[in-house]
Each structure stands twice: as structure tokens, then as C-alpha cells.
């Protein structure tokens, strides 16, 4: 196993880059990172959750349909749909990476939106009432009072979802996105007889990434909670 | 004295349930009105319509001359002029006492951080919490939390504060500290509407008592009259229940 890592470490990490496009684990992280927190999925999920907890009827329905649709179908289907539909819809060819990203964003937004919504619903009603009573607008109340509490409470659920997304990105190798599972496939076809070791290394990469993320989240949550209970 | 609050034929339904039934009454500037009545009589509903936490389906409510339920009014501006103190305190748990008090001055009144901080420190001092300014709500007792909530309402610099059972969630030994802050405000001329079962407070501080039952204000009288000679039979029953919870009526024969 170590000799595989030794021999193909670079390929696992960055694919054929810099000769070819960036691939391997780096691309997995880029895909997961863009698709989630920093990128598009989480902001989209926040909007969906606000729409679902808000009082504007048509927005609420739209968000609900979105959530139920994308939560109810497997990610592979979304990836395929994006692969075949996206080029037709916008009438140009779409790079595999962008296709994969779009699929992951819409798929994950549905799950994340439900987590955020649970966080919003989980706060006592009096928090919003008190915030509005002192004259804050809905948006101000959300920003200063509701979201800081709700997001802190849902960090563990968010992390679970992030972790499962990192793993789920592995599926996009089927449309040719060069991430780490794609690299592993390539290495496997070079080596032929060492599939077990190759895929063990692959698993280790995912495992370590998810472990690190969980630990970071725990550290972050502890830090924020400690600050909230700082001795006076 | 002009009216601070003017309720005109206010009607409210929860579905089929008629929660406020043609409520009409006024509170003058500087007055302290204590609202009492049995559970479910509509006290919370009534007080919550005054800053539009609850919508109404009929009638009008003026606070300081402003039509609170008029469509198109900037409700945030109107609400900023009305303090509200909740039974459950509803402090923002992720903010310190000072930050709780600063929020409205910062976000609504547009004060600078320094101004808001100074205002908050002064108000927390006033409610007897000068030494707990930077405490988080979780580190404060119920009585202290409620006093922070009162300071938060005072920070709005409004001439009117509404209290919905401000001492009902408190352990008995903490009721006094909150009531004494409220008495001080009343003495300084704050207009107050207070839903409470604290009849001692009502007797001592209130200018008038409203007795509510079944979504109506059945009785509106001076405390002395109300306690010595309640007019309505239901008010008499209520008083005997509140003042003598284990009175003769409930003793087995
Ligand atoms: N959101 C609601 N939906 C439906 N009915 C409600 C709602 N809020 C209150 N009610 C009903 O309206 C009536 C008045 O309630 P309200 O809370 O105003 O009573 P209250 O006088 O404050 O009672 P308490 O002393 O128990 O606080 C009650 O019968 C209650 O069940
Ligand atoms: Mg009530």
C-alpha cells in the first residue's frame, strides 16, 4: 500500500497536473469546497431555508418543491441530468467539472437547506419576537439574532453533510471529472493487479479528509461556545 | 393629558375563536395600567397587538398618535418607540448583557458603538447590574436577566413600555428586584401597561386596573375601587382566587 502511495502519490494528489488539468485529491477538495461552504451550495441552502420558514407563499412553495425534488433522487441521476440537460439548456458545451459542480450544488443545497431550516425552527419563538420588538427588521433580526444562534447549533449536522458530500463527489468520475477516484481508476489500469491497495489508498484519502473536517468543526464549535460563555 | 395608547373597537380572531372582542380603551401619557384576568382571557393577545406582534382583524390602535396597524407604515420605526418586556425575558443568549442592550441603539437608532456602549452601561447601572455588564445571559439569574431585558427596552428611549407577566417566570425571591425596578420607572413617569398577577404591585403602583375576561375589558377602575369593591361578578371571583388561592370556597365541607 505504501509503495503505491510512494509511486503514485503525486497522481493521487493532483492527477496529471501540471501537464494535464488539475485532478486528483486537489480537485476533489476544490469540487467539495466550491460546492459547499465557500461556494454555492450553502448560500443557496440559506436562501431556501429562509424561503421555507418565511411568509411569502410562492417562494415557500418553490423552495419546498426544490428541496423535495433534489432530496428524493440519487446524486448519480442529478449528475446525468446535468450532463445531458445543461448543454441543451444553455446551448453550449459545458466542461465536465462545471457539470459536476452544478449537480453537486443543487443536490446538496436540498439537504443543507433542511438542516438550516431545522436550526431556524429550533430556536424559541421569543427570539424573533424580541428582535422585532426592539425595532429590528426581519433581515436585521435574522442577521444579528437568529442566524448566529441557529448556525452554531447546526454545526454538527452541517459537518455530517459536508463529510458525506466529500465522499459523494467520487461519483462524478463517471462523467470524466478528474478527481481522486478518477486518478485511482487510472492508476489501477496502469497497475492492473494491485486494485486492493490502490483503492485502500483512495479510501484513506477520503477518510483523512473527513476526519480532519470533523475535528476542525468540533474545534470551531468549542471555540465559539467558549466565547459565548467567557467569564465576566 | 393626551393619550399614549388608544384602542378603538379592536377585534381579533384566532380562526373561529374571538380572542379580542371590541376592545376600546385609552392609556394616558405617564399612566401605569395593570391588566389582570384569568388565564386565557386575552391579556397577552391584547398587549401583543399594541406593538403589532399580533395582527388584528378589526378596529384601530394608536400609540403616540401613530396608527400601529395601518398598512404601509414602517412597523420597525413604530416598534422601536415601544418597549416590550416578555415573561421569558428573551435575551439574546449569544450576546453579553451590554450587547443585548446595545443592539437597538446600534441597528435602529444608528448610534455609534461608543455611544451605544455608554448608553448600555448607564442603563445596566440603573437596573442594578453595573457589575454584570459583560456577563452572558446564561451566567445571570432570572431576575438579573429580566432586569437586562428592561434595560434593553429602556435603550429604545421610548416613552412606553409594555410588560407581559414580567415576574411570572421568576423564582419568588427574585420577583422583588424586578418589581422595584418597575416601580422606579413608574415613578419617573414612564407610561406602562403591565400584565401581572402581582396584586401588591397593582395596588401600590397602578393608576388604573383593567380586568379582562373572554377577550373583553370588563372592568376599568382605580386600584382602590377594584380591590375594595369590584363591580363585575367575574372580577370578584378572580380577586378571591388570586388573593386567597386556598380560601374557604375550596375547603371540603
Ligand atoms: N396563536 C394562537 N392560536 C390560537 N389561539 C390562541 C393563540 N394564542 C392565544 N390563543 C387563545 O386566545 C386566548 C387568549 O390567550 P392569551 O394568551 O391572550 O391569554 P392570557 O390572558 O394571556 O392568558 P395567561 O394568563 O394564561 O397568559 C386563549 O384562549 C388562547 O388559547
Ligand atoms: Mg398571557
Descriptive report:
The complex is a heterodimer of chains A (232) and B (253). With 232 residues, chain A is mostly helical. In chain A, 78% of the residues lie in helices and 0% in strands. The longest helix of chain A is centred in the last third of the chain and has 34 residues, at 195-228. Helices cover 36% and strands 25% of the residues of chain B. Chain B contains nine helices and ten strands. Chain B has a six-stranded mixed sheet with strand order 6-7-8-3-9-10, sandwiched between helices. In chain B, strands 2-1-4-5 form a four-stranded antiparallel sheet, with helices on one face. Mean pLDDT of chain B is 93; it is low at 247-253. Chains A and B meet through helix 7 and helix 8 of A and helix 2, helix 3 and helix 5 of B. Bound molecules: adenosine-5'-triphosphate (ATP) and magnesium ion (MG). Residues 43-44, 165 of chain B line the site of magnesium ion.
**Class of secondary structure makeup of chain A:** mainly alpha
User: Largest chain-chain contact?
Assistant: A-B, 22 and 34 residues
**Tertiary shape of chain B:** globular
- What about the largest sheet of chain A? none
CATH architecture descriptor of chain A: Orthogonal Bundle
CATH superfamily (homologous) name of chain A: MetI-like
**If helices are DSSP runs of H or I spanning 4 or more residues, what is the number of helices of chain A?**
11
List ligands, each type once.
adenosine-5'-triphosphate, magnesium ion
Q: What is the beta-strand fraction of chain B?
A: 15-25%
Largest sheet of chain B, in brief, is:
6 strands, mixed
Q: How many separate domains of chain A?
A: 1
Helix content of chain A: over 70%
Report the count of strand segments of chain B: 10
What is the C-level CATH assignment of chain A? Answer: Mainly Alpha
Structural class of chain B: alpha/beta
* Morphology call of chain A: globular
